[in-house]
Design a protein that fits this description.
GO molecular function: oxidoreductase activity, acting on the aldehyde or oxo group of donors, NAD or NADP as acceptor
CATH superfamily of the largest domain: Aldehyde Dehydrogenase, Chain A, domain 1
Organism: Pseudofrankia asymbiotica
Shape: globular
Strand order of the largest sheet: 14-15-16-13-12-17-18
Bound molecules: nicotinamide-adenine-dinucleotide
Strand content: 15-25%
Number of domains: 2
Distance between the termini: 59 Å
Protein name: 2-hydroxymuconic semialdehyde dehydrogenase
Number of helices: 15
CATH class of the largest domain: Alpha Beta
Helix content: 25-40%
Largest sheet: 7 strands, mixed
Active site: 250
Number of strands: 20
Radius of gyration: 23 Å
Domain Aldehyde dehydrogenase: 11-478
Length: 482
Amino acid sequence: MRGFVDGGYAESEGGAWDNVDPVDGSVRSRVQEADAALVDRAVRAARAALDGAWGRTSVAERAVLMRRIADRIEERSEQFARAESGDTGKPLTQARELDVARAAANFRAFADTVAAAGQPSFLTDLAGGKQALNYAVRRPLGVVAVIVPWNLPLLLLTWKVAPALACGNAVVVKPSEHTPATAAMLAEVLAEAGVPDGVYNVVHGFGQGSAGQFLTEHPGVDGVTFTGSSATGTAIMHAVAPRVRQVSFELGGKNAAVVFADADLEATLAGLTRSVFANTGQVCLCTERVYVERPVLDEVASGLAERAKALKLGHPDDPATTTGPLISAEHREKVLSYYRLARERGAQVLVGGGVPELGGGLDGGSWIEPTLWTGLTHADRPMREEIFGPCAALVPFDTEDEAVRLANDTDYGLAAAVWTTNLSRGHTVAQRMRVGLSWVNTWFLRDLRSPFGGIGLSGIGREGGEHSLDFYTELTNVCVAL
Ligand code: NAD
């Protein structure tokens, strides 16, 4: 697999690596690493596109194009879903229904956003009865570096590429080294839909000393939009600091759920099952800390453990499969290190805690058991650090204030979910969560016009609807003396 630069697949003098199938450990493909020269070509191609016809397109033209792209993604839905499921090991049904469906929705949502966006203007009163008119115009940010992770590769990529292109930017995309396939397929779809050469470029590779670093340090890049770990966010901030470039960061989480005794327990257990175990726990929004009001702790613990046992780990093509493997053997080792740590810290393991034996040719894959603990406290690292696996700790609380204090006792601040039938409490507790996204009686329910992002270690800035325009455009204020 090669990078895609200036409208075509591109050779590079960089190395190559095996893209490993997390389902069984087999090699899916060889991926060519972009060297500094190819990254430079990609940035130059993006700049040339901005200086050419793409830089002169109207908002209306781009909105039409974004809708056409959405249609093309849907036409090739099965191909995208198979590529996504192949790279990640996630169930094919999920790849179809969530990842690919959302990719198309992202392009439609940002077509609508740019078509509807306006700017306030101000009539300024001056001495002597005169006036001035102030209004601002948006211009594209320029060449945007888009760096994304492996957990929801196409969904997260299009969440950034759609607003970037709708606003008239050109992009250089670096997908995760684990999931190169759908970023390359998207290049073909964009070209078919009529996106000019150089507007969307893909460079494959790693972070430090590879395409990620070459891209973020490139002087021709005007801004970096990044989804990934907080540690990589820090490295990217360092890389762009000498040239003071814009960043938008969607980073890690250590997300809490708060379950009150008055919650609808059936609905809560169904919600928690999703929020803890969806995508094998590899969603930045996944719950890893569950605070439960003491009277219902036992019921929630046993109900959630029962549902965890009922999850079906298996081949992604099997429609009965609910849960795939982790992304890699290396990531499984990281998650297992937290499983060991939890035990050493005296956790009671309600379910899971190890590696399953699935047979059927799957034992070379990165499989892991869904796991729940009780008995941990905030002094324990599994309660403080993002694990990014199918696991959570349950902790009792006695008062609303205690629940809020515990939920907010983290350096992260991405998402929280509050489960209660008390309407007033739902609102007040949700608002007291120190996070970017606070849900009541649901989880991962998104309106793409609403702001998305995190506080503290979870990120910088908000994307979504008009919030995305604030990152992907620069404002120029025009002041006219009347
Ligand atoms: P990661 O930070 O290791 O890698 C993300 C991307 O950054 C990859 O493409 C990687 O190659 C690249 N990269 C790594 N080092 C780099 C460097 N020095 N310079 C430039 N690029 C570099 O993250 P990951 O393991 O791929 O993904 C998991 C993480 O992503 C978790 O922490 C998760 O919470 C986070 N995440 C956050 C959100 C969100 O919206 N907040 C969404 C999904 C995932």
